[in-house]
Amino acid sequence: MRSFDSLSRRGLLLGLGAGGALAGSSRQALADPVFAEYPFQLGIAAGDPAPDGFVIWTRLAPRPLEIGNGMPSAPVPVNWEVASNAGFGTIVRSGEAIARPELAHAVHVEIEGLEPNREYFYRFSAGRERSATGRAKTAPAAGAATAQARFGVLGCQAYEQGFYTAHRKAAEERLDFIYCYGDYIYEGRGSRTYNGSGGTSENPRQHFGGEIYSLDDYRRRYAQYKLDVDLQACHASTAWYCTWDDHETDNNWVGAFDQDGTPPEVFALRRQAAAQAFYENMPLRRSAFPRGVEMQLYRQAAWGDLLDLNFLDTRSYRSNQPCNDAWATTCAGVSDRDAQVMGEAQEAWLYRNLDQSRAHWKVLAQQIMVMDLDRKEGPETGYNLDTWAGYAIPRQRLLDRLRERRIGNTVILTGDEHQNYAGELYRDSRNPEGAPIASEFVTTSISSSGDGQDQRADGRRYLADNPFLKFNNAQRGYAVCDVTPERWQTEFKVLDKVSEKGGTLTTRAKFAVASGDARVVAA
Predict the structure, then answer these.
(1) pLDDT in tens, the chain (523 residues)
(2) Which end of the chain has the least Cβ crowding within 10 Å, N or C?
(3) CA atoms 226, 227, 228, 232: torsion sign
(4) Any idea what the CATH number is for the domain that residue 228 is in?
């Protein structure tokens, strides 16, 4: 077991030296606390499963929406247990972590020494209080023959715009893992209404406070989201691989730039607060610990010999959107040869992974659409410039790499759009040559953009104008991927409503890709 939040005796003495006198041993100095209210109100989570373990997370917050969260300005001990059965009859790992005030009393424990490809259960306790129980599954052993994986894809969960029924339904799936593509929180001020494609709609619930900028702001916003019991159930149901998109910091930010023209050195202060709060509230490994504005969120994981999962960060290293980030347009900046989506280091890292992969399926789990979808009505072409289509040269480099190195069975998993899409990738979709290079599945939002509809007018136009696009839907929900060595299937599950609790979940469509053939077909 490794825990960033554990302390040696010497480390504890140094850490508390300025906080008051110590009596006896370091453990005695951290007496079990008595909480004014239940401290595990923000739930528990597991993340980044590996063959020998995973991360387990919690954050103590007896009064979650107050500054300080109702916690003392001091380290607090938290005990944890991992068991091989839900009743905790056989505890296989246990220990103590330290919830530090510098990290909003969050703990991240990296569990090691577990058996591959099996489920475990975990829980925390502090003082006389105990958390709920969570479930997580370890990955199959490295390179082990793996017959199947079944996992979820979800994200974009604007708290104001809908209830988290999709999270409750996803929790009931008992998935191997979940990939969350980002937009876990939204940064905007509380509002009674929002403007969507269907006009002005009333929000069923509201953010607390104004737009968020400071560390305390971000912490409180995460607390408001994490108080949702359906979200807590989804976290407790299986381990998540988490990445971020834009709203964890600010809408459509990239690199050093926000959409308001804030001086980069000032925006860096906001990025730093957002990065720290993201780490504090996600089940991430110590490798992601923030260093100023920087977080190492791109990383690789494997699911036996079936999946190589490359989790990308398409925000932190990207150059600014061209054409002033206008909608459904193009300009010379789209073909800027110096433009970056992943940044040089991440791009080189990804290419090495793809070259070396021996898995049946190579997965790029990322945030923004790679299909160069024509969004402009009429004969002229126009793109969403906050997608790979706004960065023609990096996009061509990626697809050329896949084609020239004959890296087959590549599937790209995407979010951000608040719609479901399934389609095929060509270097230039206006002039497709030969077979498609890869396949892309875009998963809709949990709640962002409200109830939605089966298909918007622009969605029907996209299908008519883009032959490589095979499916579009504009309802809320999530996707479930069922993968074997022979076949990849993505099932789009949608809700009839999120404006009220109790929405009905149905399967809207299933699309599949056969091994060795990137064509996307109805299943």
Answers:
(1) 655 454 333 333 223 222 222 223 344 457 678 999 999 999 999 999 999 999 999 999 999 999 999 999 999 999 999 999 999 999 999 999 999 999 999 999 999 999 999 999 999 999 999 999 999 999 999 999 999 999 999 999 999 999 999 999 999 999 999 999 999 999 999 999 988 767 788 999 999 999 999 999 999 999 999 999 999 999 999 999 999 999 999 999 999 999 999 999 999 999 999 999 999 999 999 999 999 999 999 999 999 999 999 999 999 999 999 999 999 999 999 999 999 999 999 999 999 999 999 999 999 999 999 999 999 999 999 999 999 999 999 999 999 999 999 999 999 999 999 999 999 999 999 999 899 999 999 999 999 999 999 999 999 999 999 999 999 999 999 999 999 999 999 999 999 999 999 999 999 999 999 999 999 999 9
(2) C
(3) positive
(4) 3.60.21.70
Here the tokens at position 413 are: 């998993």
Taking the C-alpha atoms of residue 304 and residue 302, their distance in angstroms, rounded to an integer, is: 6
Residues 354 and 383 placed together within one structural domain of the fold: yes
Pair (175, 198) in one structural domain: yes
> Which residues does 438 contact at the CB level (< 8 Å), separation at least 6?
370, 399, 402, 410, 411, 412, 424, 425, 518
How far apart are alpha carbons 106 and 111 in whole angstroms?
16
144 falls within a domain = no
d(C-alpha 290, C-alpha 428), whole Å = 37
Q: Among 83, 106, 137, where does a domain finish?
A: 137
Q: What angle do CA 271, 274, 278 make, to 5 degrees?
A: 135
113 and 203 share a domain?
Answer: no
Is the domain of 123 the same as that of 210? no
| Paired sense of beta strands 149-154 and 469-483, if any | antiparallel
DSSP state of 385: T
Does 411 share its domain with 512?
A: yes
Question: How many domains does the chain contain in total?
Answer: 2
| DSSP character string of 69-107 | TT--SS-EEEEEEEESSTT-SSEEEEEEEEE-GGGTTEE
Question: Does residue 143 fall inside a structural domain?
Answer: no
Q: What contacts 24+ positions apart, CB below 8 Å, involve 253-257?
A: 253/315, 254/315, 254/318, 254/319, 254/320, 254/321, 255/315, 255/316, 255/317, 255/318, 255/319, 255/320, 257/320
The rounded distance, in Å, linking the Cα atoms of 45 and 231 is 10
Kindly report the pTM of this predicted structure: 0.94
Residues 343, 236 share a domain: yes
- Domain hosting 71: range is 2-137
- Other beta carbons less than 10 A from residue 514's beta carbon: 12
